[in-house]
Amino acid sequence: MISFPIHYLRPHKHNAPDALQYTPSFSGADTNWQLVHGLMGTDSAPTQDTEEGIAVEIVFEGRDAAIFIAYARDPVLRVPRLALDPRTGGLTFWSNVLQPTEHELPIVIEHIQVCASSPRSIPAVDAPVARESAVMPWGLGDAFATNQLAEEVPTAVRFQARSTEPDGMLLIDRHVSRAGGEGLPAVSAGIVIQSQSAQIAKMELGFSDLVTVFLNGAPIFQGDHRYSYAEPIRPGFFQPNEAALFLPLEAGRNELVIVVVESFGGWALAARFPDGSVTTEPMR
Prior knowledge:
Blueprint: E1 3-9, E2 20-26, E3 42-43, E4 56-61, E5 64-69, E6 77-79, E7 138-140, E8 144-146, E9 160-162, E10 170-171, E11 184-195, E12 199-208, E13 210-215, E14 218-224, E15 243-249, E16 252-261, E17 268-272, E18 278-282
């Protein structure tokens, strides 16, 4: 699976909180801008052009990166952990105008330099880590295409244990290849929940973009967190606690299956049991 990092510079968002953004991309998949934001990938930056242009310097150190604008001493964006392993490769540049007109201005890139080292030092930043009691390994099935949210628990799914990112997010595109055919990409993720007694357990859930949650074969929740630029306006940014579910657990073994559908901008899942009253393992 080929993968590459992407950095966006948005002139129309001069000094806005997301004027500059890092997003990893996996071959055959959309970019993951909904998943990597805030401390992990977006920041304010001066992006309006000047007579001298905009000077941009990107410094990589292992899986760390920093972006400097206009020869500033400090980086405007610091990515504490790149999603992709360092490797050799090339550089690609492109521009995209959301609403092109006949007055669209060309983009000129000049004075490109690639150096083996940089005199700049990247300031130390701690990468985000998973919250306490987060679900870390998940069972993940093969991807399939669908035109609707699941209403019945999928059967005959061959789950494989898959690791989350260090911050607890299951980056689905890292583990599966999107299925071809009509419809949106979808996948089944599952965990076994062990509870010492029958109880109502709170589970925090984050997802991108649509989910149906099944507990012991019964549907208990559907959620829609798609990006939308018109009514209803939704940015679609992934958060690990977008929803809170109160699960009626039986004593002993419980099976939780979540069908996650990707619409645009990133495919991910995260869950956590904040009171720590249960244990989980990936469904197999």
